[in-house]
Structure prediction request, 267 residues.
Amino acid sequence: MTRLDDATYLEHIRRESARFAQVLAACPPDARVPSCPEWDATDLWWHLAGVQDFWHHVVSTRPTVPEDYEDPQRPEERDAVRAFFDDAHRRFVTALAAADPADHAWSWSSRDADQCVGFTFRRQAHEALIHRLDAELAAGTPTPLPTELAADGVHEALDTMYGELPAWGRFDPEPLFVEYRITDVDRSVWGQLGTFTGTEPDGTEHVAIPDQHVVDDPGRPADLVVSGTADRLDGWLWHRYDDTGITVEGDPHARERAFAVLEQPID
Prediction:
């Protein structure tokens, strides 16, 4: 298992958010963010400010669905953006620290088990982590992702970000398995390849789209093995790193199918 306890997630939210703000404070405001090319450094700062403001609302008004949330108006001045982030972050971590992770709360996940504050602890630890890396890439000063959080990030990226299955869709599995081997912690996350089919509420249809879902160890050799350290694998899955340090071995067909999923953008 890769999952951390909720107190550790909260500490990572604090630590990664602090590093995020520290890096951006020393970064030119118009510096481009190479991992999010449509953004400059100030756009990135405002993005995480808005994210943490929104999830503060979710946690503090739980279990109400956040239909009454209003997006804040972005200030024109960079110092005001920073001040909004500082305030949103303070309110967010204060609300989390006072909450029971088991409390019922809204989340965008379709899984019943994710309709709780614990979803926010985990998801926002990884949100802060990846955007800290974005800030460092903008500044040209990337540092490694912390091993245990990044190892959990491999699972979270595959299971939550790539593997979310909406209620209006279905996953049709195929007998093709990928082992994501995290070499520095001697753990693996397994994925099963297949296709996704479904019709969105607005009528948009998806037919036999390449898909992948996390499964338990199937007890048989993998068709494809993707290996790397926690830092490299997590950053690579999030399209923040290139494939330096990533080893891919196995069936070319399984590789093609897996990469058709992993090449899709996640935010």
The first strand starts at residue 169 and ends at 182. Helices lie at 6-25, 41-60, 78-98, 117-139, 147-161, 230-237, 252-262.
